[in-house]
Amino acid sequence: MSEFDGVGSDAGEELENRPRLHHHLSPRRERAMFATLGFVLALAVTRGITTLLHKKGAGPNGGIIVGGVHIHHFVFGMVGLLLLAYVWLLLFGIESTPPRHWFRFTAFAYGVCGALILDEFALWLNLRDVYWERQGRESVDALVGFAGLLLFVALIAPFAQAVWRHLRRS
């Protein structure tokens, strides 16, 4: 029983035979794309929430507070990265080629953790909370640099390689 059985026969066959994402991307490029997607989405959500809290007047200790201590989203990114590294160890320990969906999930999670950590780059560089101060700009610089690297790997490098191959053949 196919997931498209309820659809008309021509449309159902077309949907079942449509090209899949992994038919167009190498596994490495696919992981880079999912990492970039996770990074951009997490960055948008994180910046949106922190901006909303700041505009609502939450103050320097707005957000998650445990025992009077403000838990920065940097902590969630680091814990996530540690757990993710362990999952990667397990993925390669189980079989030589784990299913692609695990690599997609972990690549996306890597992007999310990277955004959470780099969004507070100024915090760990200055060892104090400067998120809304002038030094907080260092976080934005780190985010732009890392996002540029992810986008280069996911989008620009494959295009540049294709252009280079085309020019060499000419």
The best one-word shape is globular
Would you report the number of β strands?
Answer: 2
Count of DSSP helices? 6
Q: Give a quick account of the main beta sheet: strands, pairing sense, barrel closure.
A: 2 strands, antiparallel
Uncertain stretches: 1-5
Q: What's the quaternary structure here?
A: single chain
Mean residue pLDDT: 78
Strand line-up in the sheet with most strands: 1-2
Q: In percent, how helical is the residue content?
A: 55-70%
Helix-strand sequence: HHEEHHHH
Evaluate the radius of gyration: 21 Å
Strand content: under 5%
**Protein structure class:** mainly alpha
Please describe the structure with a list of short key phrases separated by commas or semicolons.
disordered N terminus, two-stranded antiparallel ribbon, mainly alpha, single chain, globular, 2 strands, 170 residues
